[in-house]
Amino acid sequence: MTRSPVSEKTVTVDLGEKSYPIYIGKNILPEFGVYVKRKVTGPKVLVVTNPTVNNLYGKVVADSLQRSGYEVSIGEVPDGESYKSLDSARLLYDIAFENNLDRSCAIIALGGGVIGDLAGFVAATYMRGIPFIQVPTTLLAQVDSSVGGKVAVNHPKGKNIIGAFYQPKMVFADTGTLSTLAQREVRGGMAEVIKYGIIWDPAFFNYLEESHTLIKEMDTGALIHIVETSCSIKARVVEQDETEQGIRAILNYGHTFGHALEALTGYKRYIHGEAVAIGMVTAADAAVKLEMLDSAVRERIEKVINLYELPVKSKKLSVDDVIESMGHDKKVKAGRVRYVLPEEIGQVNIVTDISYDILTEILTERLTGND
Amino acid sequence: MTRSPVSEKTVTVDLGEKSYPIYIGKNILPEFGVYVKRKVTGPKVLVVTNPTVNNLYGKVVADSLQRSGYEVSIGEVPDGESYKSLDSARLLYDIAFENNLDRSCAIIALGGGVIGDLAGFVAATYMRGIPFIQVPTTLLAQVDSSVGGKVAVNHPKGKNIIGAFYQPKMVFADTGTLSTLAQREVRGGMAEVIKYGIIWDPAFFNYLEESHTLIKEMDTGALIHIVETSCSIKARVVEQDETEQGIRAILNYGHTFGHALEALTGYKRYIHGEAVAIGMVTAADAAVKLEMLDSAVRERIEKVINLYELPVKSKKLSVDDVIESMGHDKKVKAGRVRYVLPEEIGQVNIVTDISYDILTEILTERLTGND
Lengths: 371, 371
Fold this sequence. Notes:
homodimer, 371 residues, alpha/beta, Rossmann fold, Dehydroquinate synthase-like, alpha domain, seven-stranded mixed beta sheet, two-stranded antiparallel sheet, 11 strands, 46% helix, 18% strand
């Protein structure tokens, strides 16, 4: 009784020899091993995951891999951003080495963005790079972090400071896993989904405005549609600029402010999507102030973010601390800060430097919340 | 009184967008900054070096960079292979971060293979990759490790287990630095030079046989010739196979045995080139045993290695330990060991698996030295 493998949708990331498919469907995890077989010739795989995800999906994934003939080892890393570290990477190198993984074997990330980034960094650097597969189980990971090859661990003083551009051989997104996700995590993922509408696709933005009830009810078709559309937009951007020399920077819309907020609150107060949500509104504020954006469009952006119950104001923080923190963002070129600002729905532009006075004015407004 | 920059020879590594020049000349370090200016647009550079090299060449390099307008910071790592570690990388990430290096800035490796591999790994992974420049100051680094983009740190249980393929923007080899090198280090470098003759170039092998006096006297022309020829051969191999999917493996001639010897003697008894020298003769033994190689050619290989005062036998070690250690070599595919064996001077081939009996026989012979 072998079922033939099915995925509802396939998006391809076209990067020449490094091209790879993104399979998207509901409850497709039991078929995972069959898909891996197309990509991994070696006998062994190391599944990197965390206790929560392992508990929920470790067995179905390992069983599927074993049915396809793989020898499976599991590398469990505790939950949380603080474990996206060089120390965790070191632990995984040890496990890979002890299990004799060689360059024909694969590392599989089963989990959210933390697991994907960490496992990807280990895959990129173990034996100078071995095959890597993403199995994202959060909305954030399915629509954003699992696609595009950015992998990294954190430096004590900054997020994603140690990393690489390293493309996976495949992404396998089972939207069924989103049903076990905390509501807050789903909302966080929606911040990145909204981002794609703002930077690239007015029709998709309209859909998000109109279909919010369906999406919040986790309708199967709606979820597959937003994952597929998000991955397609990200794929188009990454195809043009794999290593972030130019256009890829637009994916950082909301992230320059967002990263600063996360850093200044010790990565504890906000989940990533919440910080990005505040960052997207702040960037829209700046765009209005610079007369790049109509204030009615800014309102529309803030309204959609509200619709998905994401924050639009940060707690009170020192404006100067935020400005200084932005100076350490990776997008900084030669000491200057580059901001991704919206011009209309579906269109952003990159602005180098914003005056201290304008930054102070908009940040003072956005950093006064009580949440 | 600005001198116009000169290098005696330039070898280009042709890798499309990742192509880069290797400049080779005597006493060219004072002109270094002028060359860097062609490649690095940012205002800052981090020079990674060790105390010995820093003492000898740190000032001339830093002065040259400052004359070209760069803000220079120095990251000093203690001498020795044991510092090619994740801990040293962590220290350098901290220095890069504290000095606000961004993606437009460069990391410069000033030293031998340890410094080049470590600094390259940090450049490959800091902010997902920033410009990297090699200034090799040992013969081994000038003819081998600085060219081709292999960067790495060691794992407690294996050499170069954590790394990447990351090409430098330029290699700047001043053969003048070889005059301050210990004789043993020069001899070690010659092992890799001899390797190029055996795997690729019979005429070069002849030259090494005939010109050994000139080379051992460190004649300027002879040194530039062997560095240039070695870099050219390595460039041609790397151009065909940047990430070691196929032909690049021939560069590992002598290294499968060599790495095992280094590992089993705690990286203390042999410098790399010495272990490779023993490894090359051992591989030739195996080739004769498998009837791939004429025993007269094997003699010629051993004779050249003797000529440059490199070892051809290892101290007594357990044959089984060596065989087990080779099983952890990165070249292992799906549990099988691949050996690079000579067929004639200028030609090697890759053999998958050698029987336990043959390995035991040849290793028993080679592991009986007293040195």
